Amino acid sequence: MRQALLGIVSKSTSPLKAIMALALAMTFVCADVASSLAARQAAIVVDAKTGKVLYSADANGRRYPASLTKMMTLYLTFEAMAKGKIGKNSPVVFSAHASAEAPTKLGVKPGGSVTVETAILSIVTKSANDSATALGEMLGGDEATFARMMTAKARQLGMNGTVFRNANGLPDPGQFTTARDMATLGIALREHFPQYYGYFSQRSFLYGRQRINGHNRLLGRIKGVDGIKTGYTRASGFNLVSSVSDGNRRLVAVVMGGTSGGSRDNQMASLINTYLPRASTRGGGDLVAKADSNNPIKALAKVLLPKHDAPTPDEKPVAVAEDDTSVADDAAVAQGDSEDEDTAQAEAPKLVAPAKKVKTVIVAAPKVATAQVVAAYAEPTPAVDPVNTASVPSGWAIQVASSPKQSEAQAFLDKTTKQAPKVLADAAGFTVAFDKDGVTYYRARFGGFGSKDAAWKACTALKKKKIECYAVQQ
Predict the structure, then answer these.
(1) 70 has catalytic annotation
(2) What is the DSSP letter of 173?
C-alpha cells in the first residue's frame, strides 16, 4: 500500500496535484479500513415470537460485553423482586468498593444507599457502574460470588458462550459473551419479567434535583423500540441490544463492536427496518424457559464455573475514571474505558487485528437451532481456548501442566499462582481442551505475555522455583 501511494505521488507533476492525489488515495485507504472493521463486527436479529434467526454475522464470536453485562445483573434483580426477596423500595447500600467504581456512576458515597428502583433506573439510563456493583453485592454477598451466580444463570438460560466476572461490565479479560447469547438474554428479560420490562424504555429519570438522561438514542427515534441496553469500552467497541415491537411482530437484535455510537445505531436501525417486516405475526409462548432456583449456591454447584477462561490482551484493560458529563455528539469524547458512551473515545481501529490460527482443538459452545433460541438447562461447556476476535487478541502463553481432568489442570493453575504470585501477577490462567487417541485432555496455561521473550523470561523464573513449563504462541 505504501509503495502504491508513493507511485501516485511520484507521477504528479506539481506539489498541489501530489497533495490532492495523496488525499484521494488516503480516502480509499480509510474506506478499506472501515470495511475491514465492519467485517469484524458481530450482529444477530431474532424473531422474538418464533425464535427464528433472521440475520446473523459472527453471532457466536467471542466478544467483551461491556455494559451489556448489566442486563444479567438486572435479570437477577428482577428475579429477586419477583420472588419477594427484595422490593423496589428496599435500600441498596454502597460499599467502599461499589463507590470506587469508575464512571459513569451515581456517585453515592460509601455507606450511602438508594432504593432498588433508583439503582435500576440509574443502570438502564446512565449505565451506573457503582449501582450495578452495589446490587450485585446486595444479592450475592460480594461481587465475585454474584458474578458466579450470573454465569450460573447464563448457563441455565442456555447462554453457553458467556462468562461473567463482575456486575457492571468494566474491563476484565476473563469476561466475555456472544451476540447470540445477548439476544437470548434480551428475549428472556421480556418473557420472564414483563412486569419489570418497562424499566428498559425509561429515557430519563430524576435523581434528587438532577435529570439523568439515557444513552439509548434509538428510544423515540425508531418506532416500536422499547429498550434494552447500550455498552462501550475501548476493548469491546460500541454494543447495543434492542427490542422492537410493531403490531404483531417482535424482534430482538444485537450489534457488537461498532466503531462509534452513531454508526452502531445506524446499523441497528437498518437491521430493524430490514427484518421487522419479515418477522412472523404468529407464534408465542416462552422461547427461553425459566431456570428458577431458590438456592443460588445449589445452582452454582450444577454449573462448571472456571476461575480463569481466557488469556489477557497484550495490554491488560484498566478502568479509567472520567468526567461523566454528557455531550451531544459522539465525536466530542474523551479517552478511557468509561462505560459512558458520551464520554468515550472510539478507538476501534487500534483494537482490530487479524486473527491468528488456533492450533489446539477448540471445544465450542453448541450452536442454537435456527427455529429455536435456546433449550432450558443446557449442559455447560468446559473452559476453552479463546476464539480469537477483535476483542480478545492472541499472544504468547506458558504451559505448566496437562491432565485428563479439567479440575486437576485448574488446581495446578491455582497452585502455581500461589507459588509464584509476582511472576504471574499480570498473567491469567486458563485451560485448553485437546484430543489425543480419542481422549480429551486439558492443558494448564498462563496467557497475557506480549512477546516470546516475555513468556520465556516468566518460564525461566518459574523453573527457578522448580516449576516446569515452556512457552507457546496462541
Answers:
(1) yes
(2) T
